[in-house]
TrEMBL record:
Keywords, sorted A to Z: Amino-acid transport, ATP-binding, Nucleotide-binding, Transport
CDD domains cross-referenced by the UniProt entry: ABC_TM1139_LivF_branched
Key word Transport present: yes
Domain ABC transporter: 21-255
InterPro entries, per the entry: AAA+_ATPase, ABC_transporter-like_ATP-bd, ABC_transporter-like_CS, BCAA_Transport_ATP-bd_LivF, P-loop_NTPase
Record keyword Translocase present: no
PANTHER family assigned to the protein according to its UniProt record, in alphabetical order: HIGH-AFFINITY BRANCHED-CHAIN AMINO ACID TRANSPORT ATP-BINDING PROTEIN LIVF
Gene Ontology MF terms in the entry: ATP binding; ATP hydrolysis activity; branched-chain amino acid transmembrane transporter activity
Biological process terms in GO annotation: L-amino acid transport
Full protein name: Amino acid/amide ABC transporter ATP-binding protein 2 (HAAT family)
Family annotation (SUPFAM superfamilies): P-loop containing nucleoside triphosphate hydrolases
Family membership: Belongs to the ABC transporter superfamily.
Organism the protein comes from: Actinomadura hallensis
């Protein structure tokens, strides 16, 4: 069974060859416990990459390592031609990388609009006005415009996820990283969030790297799926034209039944 991908503009030759993000043989440990083993990854310009795999595979650790939350023992992370391996989180964010963490981490007592505007304080660039960005985010997720004056803690799980993504987009990143954006959400909310994320690379010069347990959502969005297990990359697949990915094959890869 194959998954139809969201419609995307074909990459230019430069975009397809030159990577926005290159992770080269990084190793990460939590104390005496090694979490990542020689992990390498490439994210081209204006592309969507998805990391899948069972719990404990190291997917979230990889995102945190790229951002600088978790220190890298050995290996390098290169972003837009610059070595960002040892940068602090604020410096990495200002270079144009942002992360929507699992759990969203909104300020529950602040309104939706206040949460969104907080994302502007760490903007990596200011090519758009705050009002223009808000208008764009409200186009991506119209429900946020209706809820703009509500406190974030009163939103549904799906609405909170939309607000968290919107806050990240307010910083005008070049690479948007998402940790489990569909986790615990109703199918209708997953569909809306997938639709919003799909527009990101179309409307702006932006790439997306996401951790996703929902294989269908990953297949619908991604140009490339990377399978991780026990801290290692065990398999990778590129989308095949408009036909996208074979869901049965991705599911088998997820559970370690097929590697290549």
């Amino acid at each position: 069974m194959s998954a139809q991908r969201t419609s995307k503009t074909p990459q230019t030759t430069k975009d397809a060859v030159q990577a926005l993000l290159s992770v080269d043989r990084i190793n990460v440990s939590y104390g005496e416990v090694q979490a990542l083993f020689d992990v390498s990854l490439r994210v081209p310009f204006k592309s969507v990459g998805a990391l899948i795999g069972p719990n404990g595979a190291g997917k979230s650790t990889l995102l945190k390592s790229i951002l600088g939350v978790v220190p890298i023992s050995t290996g390098t992370v290169t972003f837009a031609g610059e070595d960002v391996t040892r940068l602090t989180v604020p410096k990495t964010v200002r270079r144009g990388i942002t992360l929507v963490p699992e759990g969203r981490e909104l300020f529950a007592g602040l309104s939706v609009i206040e949460n969104l505007e907080l994302g502007r304080t760490v903007a990596s660039k200011r090519s758009s006005t705050t009002d223009d960005l808000l208008d764009w985010i409200f186009q991506l997720f119209p429900v946020l415009k209706k809820r703009r004056s509500q406190v974030a803690g009163s939103l549904s799980g799906g609405e909170q996820q939309m607000a968290a993504i919107g806050r990240a987009l307010m910083s005008e990143p070049t690479l948007l990283m998402l940790d489990e954006p569909s986790l615990g959400l109703a199918p209708v909310m997953v569909e809306r969030i997938v639709s919003g994320i799909a527009r990101v690379t179309e409307d702006f010069d932006m790439s997306v790297l996401m951790v996703e347990q929902n294989i269908g959502a990953a297949a619908a969005l991604a140009d490339r799926v990377v399978v991780m297990n026990v801290g290692r990359v065990v398999s990778e697949r590129d989308a095949t034209g408009e036909e996208g990915f074979d869901i049965d094959e991705l599911t088998a890869m997820y559970w370690g039944q097929h590697t290549a």
